[in-house]
Amino acid sequence: MLVGTRVPRGMDWSSPTPNERWRVWWRGIAASPGSYVRAGVSSGFGQLGNTPQQYGQGWDAYAKRYGNSFLTYTLQDSASQALAAAARYEMRYIQCKCTKVLPRIGHALAFNFVTYNQSGKKVLNWPSIVGGYSAGMLSSTYTPGQKWSAGGIRSGNSGLYFGFASSLLQEFTPSSFFKKRGKKTAATAPHAD
Q: How much is the pTM?
């Protein structure tokens, strides 16, 4: 739950069903502690750098930054997953079949830019890229003092940074960590953990 939804290396990949897509969206945005941690870390950096300056400092300012970050990441994830569903692209993280550390790190980095299409062929993950940057540009409409272009690029880049961190966690977190959540999850999520 902390790192999202993945297809573990020991499972054969299959294209996600519509129900799996909804579950991945829900778990990735609302049901995952990782979503709240991501917004908290991003807000902390904003607080340290006093950006945007219009929010000022203190707990009220941090709360505004947190709400802004959480909304922006929610829009980015929603846009990316909606585009992936329309294109019938994979939106879960697919663990590397390799076992050595450096290839697994490379795989985690690459999976920010590639994914699988419905046939299981690796393709450019344009839904994630377009969704991240376009929602970032949209966020400039409710973030004080930001231009749509600079704000969109900064927000899109931030999505890539957190995407890489999430991919690393999903790549290296042992499957036994997920299995401890109970049999219900295993029964309802045959392709992902």
A: 0.77
